[in-house]
């Protein structure tokens, strides 16, 4: 037998139940960074060392729904290459990957429903104007809530993909803490101007903690001023907390690559449903293993397990999104 | 039940789960008001954005702070600070029944902030000693601690034995003058009005030294208030149109921390501020690739300074002693800008094109008399032994009421300046290849010259002859005798720019950026009434010989203006200081080029490095850097004859004017900056975000020397390191979310402990520079008023460095010397190899967020200079003559800084 291969893992989130009067399930996305597993590979799981039944698993070839949210308001020289790359990647998706299209300006709006026919989504991407104010921070929670509802109700893998060029200074909301009194010479409160952005990101982390769909963000314009850095880092934190990822493009050439890499990642998602063993709650050590031919995979990370009651109350302070490979 | 589906299965069977999910998607999005066909009721109950906002208070008090180092060093133990900064912000949708029903449509945001503070300002000065105030200079010493003799100008007489062929010296005096007996001015000689003024002048309250210097420490409070609003509303129309309106209003009072508790304090007057800004933006999205925008912006700021109900105190300048009175004691200024912008951008193939038009109208309305009660300058010359340095004292001249120069500003009416500007710019972002983008821009600017609403402006035109003296240089008036309203020509500028971003070898992890740009600077319109002579007056009184006779008799005061205003004669300002406007049409030109490379490496880290060049010419400079009416340094050979004002003026290019006032608007400066940087950025991972930038640079110029330029005829001789530019800087900022509590690896408690340990973060910044170039200056300038600034001499073969620089000796003063009388210094304005002490500051903010359902409480404690690090002051760079060296040269007196703490409370809802 070959030596077991070590795999990096980008796993996601869990919201697990506790006081188990009835069986509680946990749905988690996971990615295999290297190596391949066959679609029929079987995972085994433990939570805090206790075996947890993998009641269902969806592999990279299973049904998938991608909700693309366009949040483009700026430079067409960045947006147009993004449109072309998006259309190209969507066209290459397998037939069982459906794409829905939404827009983030002035709230979340559906432009094309997920369907086998991608023509409407592609036309929507092509014709969408890039104007208005950025809307990611105000729409990401409803978008993830929508995706989470689909995950809970249908055996499909669901991902949310934001394509944005948002500038934190152009939001309708005030995240930049602008100077109000120009004649105040001793104002120290704006020496750390990113406080409002951090506060918003913290709120979103709390609000989306129990949601189980991964968020991917492709930011077309990496800006290097202090506030936009804080904003972009916040997007990274937010996406990684859901098991997703943020790509920050520093040049036009990076846009197609970032979009291609993100679609590859979304397509390679595994979604596992675990039955939580009794008396497991709080932060739980999660271990996954699988075998495919001569190749073995072991994954390990921690997650927090919440009670069923708290989940019902919408207070599923979610799992730890930290993870580690073994 | 979840089912693992194989690829083969999904290819061959209808995707029932997907269909079900898609139907669910439609239901959910309809219920959430995300679809056009959503019922109005659903829209109202959907994911609308509720009203939300925050209320906050930032609190500062001296009980939280460390006592500033500069205060403790002067014996103080408290520096008053009471500050409350408070405000709120609310934002949300506007809903009006039957009119605006979509909660996503109209968005309103209102912010308010108020400030109430009382804060102390500490400073250290030198003022006359108690004996000096009575005319007793018997204890007065010079920089070397040697007795400083004060001479009686009433005893001045020509020296019959004077040899004009030899320089003036104590052995070859041109004029004889007796010292006051016992170095005391008799009480009967003290000017009565000066004695009256001295009642408002404080006595020394400390003794820092050396000798009697640095003897007055003041740490007086000032009171400031401010209240401001921002209201912003945003509304889209029919998908393709959007209108945004923003208005801000702020009123404030900025008190002045007085050096003296009376109207003679040499501090700026209290000021009332008012600012207004309104902006209306319209965006029309014609197609997916074409967008048009239009904006109207109006801004207004006004300042009223001083108390116009009482007469201003005269401005007395007393050499190195703290002055009395202040310039611009009572002013009113208002600046208005009206701006219209329109732009269109579109995408054509690989090109993103943008065309923008901007038209501005600037207004500056100013009532700004500099010295309504007079400016009186007192120097050592009138109480010196004529021609001999290190004799006489400015304060002695003051006690005798003998100014060497005086002026008074007579302002009849405010000025209403207008300054229009237009700009047309185009740009093309061209994606040349998949890995190469080139941006090309062209900017066409039309800068119109400043005009005055009633044509009340003037200047000296060197091309027009002054009829009263028959020499070039006469006063000309806007709109009179064919002179254009703007006096100077308009400027039409063409400014190109080009830049590129290249991913070499198809590697997206690496980006190479390069750019070049050229631009023109505008001639700004400052507050003030410069270049309005003839309509307003500047009476000037100059001593016929600054060592022999005063500019006027202070006891009689400044005589009234004899010529009524307006005086539109070409000779109206002959024998006076003239406002000189450059009429050639030159304006600042800048250009820059840069090259950098960025590479993303593992662990979310980006490293970058780059180099840049920037330079400029015809930069705007003031009286200390240029003087078109200067006497050539070649004239120094005339020696003490130069103190004869009548002779001195004959050497000037425009002898009918005593001097020129350039008001910081003369286009003559040059600079060049070459810099490199290394950057490190760690993007968010494991709760840590981090950026660091190290910059090294060399910046040289010929206009920013701290003590001014020595040779106005050869500015390149004063080209030296920029004193304000530290060659090395390091800036670091970081954000770290502590790994405790909910969702973190450590201390994940339940119950009451959970909220306590969760939600902590630290934000910090750090700055360090390696010191700025030092500027040496001689203690005495005996050049007959030919050189406004004198550089030091560099002593050959003497190392200016010391083995261990410290406060007791930072540099070796023996490496420099005071130039001989009537010679130029051979050293540069700033030393190429000597830097001042380094400067560092560490700021830190600890934040705790406590979620309360939809609400949250944020607590913050911010500490600026949180290590309470003291940064050294810069050393004394005054170099005295060998006979009377400055004993303080090279030494550092004191340090500054101190930890400042601010506590913040914010409730978000």
Report on this model:
The complex is a heterodimer of chains A (326) and B (909). By secondary structure, chain A is of the alpha/beta class. Chain A has a domain of 192 residues: 3-Layer(aba) Sandwich (Rossmann fold). Helices cover 29% and strands 29% of the residues of chain A. Chain A has an 8-stranded antiparallel beta sheet with strand order 1-2-11-4-3-12-13-14, with no helix packed on it. Chain A has a 6-stranded mixed beta sheet with strand order 7-6-5-8-9-10, with helices on both faces. In chain A, strand 8, helix 4 and strand 9 form a beta-alpha-beta unit. Chain B is mostly beta strands and 909 residues long. Chain B has a 22-stranded antiparallel β-barrel. A 5-stranded mixed beta sheet of chain B has the order 11-10-14-15-23. In chain B, strands 4-5 form a two-stranded antiparallel ribbon. In chain B, strand 28 and strand 29 form a beta hairpin. The N terminus of chain B is likely disordered. Classes of the chains: A alpha/beta (326), B mainly beta (909). The interface between A and B is large, with 108 and 126 residues.
Features:
heterodimer; A: 326 residues; alpha/beta; Rossmann fold; eight-stranded antiparallel sheet; six-stranded mixed sheet; 7 helices; 29% helix; globular; disordered N terminus; disordered C terminus; B: 909 residues; mainly beta; 22-stranded antiparallel barrel; five-stranded mixed sheet; 41 strands
């Amino acid at each position: 037998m070959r030596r077991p291969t070590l795999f990096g893992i980008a796993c996601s989130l869990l919201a697990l139940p506790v006081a188990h009067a009835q069986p509680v399930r946990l749905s988690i996305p996971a990615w295999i960074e290297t190596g391949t597993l066959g679609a029929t590979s079987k995972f085994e799981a433990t939570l805090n060392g206790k075996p947890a039944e993998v009641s269902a698993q969806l592999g990279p070839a299973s049904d998938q729904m991608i909700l693309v949210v366009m949040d483009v308001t700026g430079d067409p020289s960045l947006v147009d290459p993004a449109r072309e790359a998006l259309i190209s990647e969507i066209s290459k998706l397998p037939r069982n990957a459906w794409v829905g299209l939404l827009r983030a300006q002035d709230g979340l709006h559906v432009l094309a429903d997920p369907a086998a026919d991608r023509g409407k989504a592609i036309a929507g991407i092509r014709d969408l104007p890039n104007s208005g104010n950025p809307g990611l921070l105000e729409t990401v929670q409803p978008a993830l809530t929508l995706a989470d509802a689909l995950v809970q109700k249908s055996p499909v893998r669901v991902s949310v993909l934001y394509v944005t060029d948002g500038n934190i200074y152009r939001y309708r909301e005030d995240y930049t803490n602008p100077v109000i009194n120009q004649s105040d010479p001793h104002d120290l409160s704006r020496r750390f101007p990113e406080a409002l952005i951090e506060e918003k990101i913290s709120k979103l982390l709390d609000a989306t903690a129990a949601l189980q769909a991964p968020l991917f963000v492709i930011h077309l314009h990496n800006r290097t001023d202090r506030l936009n850095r804080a904003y972009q880092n916040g997007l990274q934190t937010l996406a990684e907390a859901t098991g997703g990822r943020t790509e920050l493009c520093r040049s036009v050439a990076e846009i197609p690559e970032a979009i291609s890499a993100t679609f590859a990642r979304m397509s390679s998602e595994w979604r596992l449903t675990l039955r939580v063993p009794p008396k497991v709650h709080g932060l739980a050590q999660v271990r996954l293993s699988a075998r495919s031919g001569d190749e073995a995979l072991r994954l390990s990370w921690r997650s927090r397990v919440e009670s069923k009651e708290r989940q019902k109350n919408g207070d599923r302070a979610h799992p730890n999104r930290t993870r580690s490979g073994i | 039940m979840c089912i693992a589906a194989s690829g083969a299965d999904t290819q061959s069977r209808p995707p029932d789960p997907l269909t079900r999910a898609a139907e669910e998607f439609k239901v959910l999005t309809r219920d959430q008001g995300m679809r056009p066909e959503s019922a109005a009721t659903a829209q109202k109950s959907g994911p609308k954005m509720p009203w939300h906002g925050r209320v906050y208070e930032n609190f500062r008090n001296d009980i939280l702070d460390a006592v500033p180092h500069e205060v403790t060093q002067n014996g103080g133990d408290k520096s008053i600070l009471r500050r409350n900064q408070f405000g709120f912000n609310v934002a949300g949708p506007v809903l009006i029944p039957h009119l605006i029903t979509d909660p996503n449509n109209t968005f309103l945001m209102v912010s308010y902030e108020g400030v109430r503070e009382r804060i102390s300002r500490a400073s250290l000065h030198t003022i006359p000693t108690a004996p000096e105030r009575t005319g007793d200079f018997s204890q007065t010493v010079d920089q070397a601690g040697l007795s400083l003799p004060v001479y009686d100008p009433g005893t001045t007489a020509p020296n019959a034995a004077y040899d004009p062929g030899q320089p003036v010296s104590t052995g070859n005096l041109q004029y004889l003058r007796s010292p006051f007996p016992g170095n005391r001015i008799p009480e009967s000689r003290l000017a009565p009005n000066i004695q009256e003024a001295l009642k408002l002048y404080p006595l020394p309250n400390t003794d820092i030294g050396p000798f009697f210097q640095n003897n007055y420490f003041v740490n007086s409070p000032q009171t400031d208030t401010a209240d401001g609003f921002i209201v912003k509303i945003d509304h889209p129309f029919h998908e393709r149109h959007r209108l945004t309106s923003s208005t801000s209003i702020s009123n404030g009072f900025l008190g002045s921390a007085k050096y003296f508790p009376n109207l003679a304090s040499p501090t700026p007057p209290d000021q009332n501020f008012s600012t207004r800004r309104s902006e209306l933006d319209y965006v029309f999205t014609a197609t997916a690739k074409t967008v048009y925008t239009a904006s109207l912006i109006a801004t207004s700021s006004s300042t009223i300074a001083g108390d116009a109900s009482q007469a201003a105190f005269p401005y007395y300048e007393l050499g190195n002693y703290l002055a009395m009175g202040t310039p611009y004691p009572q002013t009113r200024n208002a600046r208005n800008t009206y701006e219209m912008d329109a732009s269109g951008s579109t995408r054509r193939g690989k090109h993103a094109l943008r065309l923008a038009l901007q038209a501005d109208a600037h207004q500056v309305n100013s009532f700004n008399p500099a010295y309504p009660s007079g400016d009186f300058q007192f120097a050592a010359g009138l109480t010196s032994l004529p021609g001999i340095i290190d004799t006489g004292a400015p304060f002695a001249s003051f006690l005798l009421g003998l100014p060497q120069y005086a002026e008074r500003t007579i302002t009849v009416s405010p000025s209403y300046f207008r300054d229009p500007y237009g700009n047309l710019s185009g740009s093309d972002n061209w994606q040349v290849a998949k890995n190469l983008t080139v941006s090309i821009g062209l900017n066409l600017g039309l800068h119109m010259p400043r005009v005055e609403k009633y044509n009340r402006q003037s200047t000296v035109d060197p091309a027009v002859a002054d009829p009263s003296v028959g020499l070039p240089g006469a006063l000309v008036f806007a709109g009179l005798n064919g002179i254009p309203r703007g006096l100077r020509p308009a400027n039409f500028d063409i400014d190109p720019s080009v830049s590129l971003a290249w991913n070499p070898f198809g590697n997206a992890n690496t980006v190479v950026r390069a750019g070049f740009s050229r631009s023109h600077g505008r001639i700004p319109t400052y507050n003030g009434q410069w270049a309005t002579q003839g309509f307003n007056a500047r009476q000037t009184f100059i001593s016929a010989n600054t060592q022999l006779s005063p500019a006027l008799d202070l006891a009689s005061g400044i005589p009234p203006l004899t010529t009524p205003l307006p005086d539109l004669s070409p000779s109206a300002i002959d024998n006076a200081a003239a406002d000189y406007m450059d009429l050639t049409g030159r304006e600042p030109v800048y250009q820059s080029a840069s090259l950098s490379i960025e590479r993303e490496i593992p662990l979310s880290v980006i490293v970058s490095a780059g180099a840049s060049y920037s330079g400029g010419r015809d930069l705007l400079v003031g009286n200390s850097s240029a003087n078109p009416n200067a006497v050539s340094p070649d004239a120094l050979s005339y020696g003490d004859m130069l103190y004869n004002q009548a002779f001195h003026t004959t050497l000037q290019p425009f002898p009918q004017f005593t001097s020129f006032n350039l008001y910081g608007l003369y286009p003559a400066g040059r600079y060049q900056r070459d810099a490199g940087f290394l950057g490190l950025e760690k993007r968010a991972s494991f709760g840590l975000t981090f950026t660091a930038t190290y910059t090294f640079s060399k910046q040289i110029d010929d206009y920013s020397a701290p003590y001014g330029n020595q040779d106005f005829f050869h500015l390149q001789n004063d080209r030296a390191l920029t004193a304000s530019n530290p060659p090395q800087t390091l800036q670091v900022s970081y954000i770290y979310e502590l790994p405790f509590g909910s969702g973190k690896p450590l201390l994940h408690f339940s119950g009451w402990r959970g909220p306590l340990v969760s939600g902590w973060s630290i934000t910090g910044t750090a700055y360090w520079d390696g010191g700025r170039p030092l500027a040496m200056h001689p203690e005495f300038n005996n050049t007959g008023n030919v050189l406004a600034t004198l550089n030091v001499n560099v002593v050959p073969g003497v190392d200016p460095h010391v083995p261990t620089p410290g406060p007791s000796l930072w540099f070796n003063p023996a490496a420099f010397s005071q130039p001989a009388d009537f010679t130029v210094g051979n050293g540069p304005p700033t030393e190429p190899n000597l830097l001042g002490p380094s400067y560092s500051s560490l700021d830190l903010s600890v934040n705790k967020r406590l979620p309360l359902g939809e609400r949250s409480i944020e607590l913050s404690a911010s500490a600026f200079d949180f290590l309470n690090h003291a940064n050294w002051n810069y050393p004394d760079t005054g170099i005295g003559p060998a006979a009377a060296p400055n004993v303080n040269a090279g030494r550092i007196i004191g340090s500054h800084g101190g930890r400042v703490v601010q506590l913040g409370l914010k409730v978000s809802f």
